[in-house]
Amino acid sequence: MIPSADLSLLLPTGPSVAQMVSQPQPEESVQEADTVTLDCTYSTRDTDYYLFWYKQPPSGQMVYIIHQYAFEQQNATNDRYSVNFQKEAKAFSLRISDSQLEDAAVYFCAYSGAQ
User: Fold this and answer.
1) Residue 83 to residues 23, 34, 52, 59: CA-CA distances in angstroms?
2) CA-to-CA distance for 85 and 76, rounded, in angstroms?
3) CA distance linking residue 6 with residue 29, whole number of Å
4) CB proximity list for 42: less than 8 A, separation 6 or greater
5) For residues 94 and 81, is the Cβ–Cβ distance under 8 A?
6) DSSP code of residue 103
7) 13 or 22, higher pLDDT
8) The model's pTM
9) Smallest Cα–Cα separation from 104: which of 37, 55, 54?
10) Helix %, strand %, coil % for the chain, to 5?
11) For residues 97 and 84, what is the distance between their CA atoms, to the nearest angstrom?
12) How far apart are the first and last CA of the chain?
């Protein structure tokens, strides 16, 4: 049996990288092995772009998690991470399944034009 532990997932407030990106949840606390969803909304007039999720653990190093291309029909997945991309609503959520202690970090949603 895995002991239960609280994880803190922090999200910076306000715009992140390029265009306008917002993350409304300042902090999420979850139990180990739970599933958590982190929300991100963005604003752009571009039609061709990428959205990314990164995390910054206590070590300070930025770690790439997952990305989604605007014209990709299927939501991206990467191990325990998956996204819910809603292009019309301009929403890009990160879902972390089976959360673990190493998931405790600051999470960043980022935008990049596809040039």
Assistant:
1) 14, 16, 10, 25
2) 8
3) 6
4) 19, 20, 21, 22, 51, 90, 92, 109, 111
5) yes
6) G
7) 22
8) 0.81
9) 55
10) 5, 50, 45
11) 13
12) 48
Per-residue confidence (pLDDT) for residue 10, from 0 to 100: 52
Question: Which of 21, 33, 25 is CA-nearest to residue 103?
Answer: 33
Domains of the chain in start order, with CATH, are 6-12+20-113 (2.60.40.10)
Residue type, 21: V
Query: How does residue 25 score in pLDDT terms, banded at 50, 70 and 90?
Result: confident
Asked if residue 48 lies in contact with residue 64, where contact means CB atoms within 8 angstroms, the answer is no
Q: Structure tokens of 51?
A: 């959205």
Q: Which whole-number Å values give the CA distances from 13 to 4, 5, 20, 27, 64, in the listed order?
A: 28, 25, 12, 10, 19
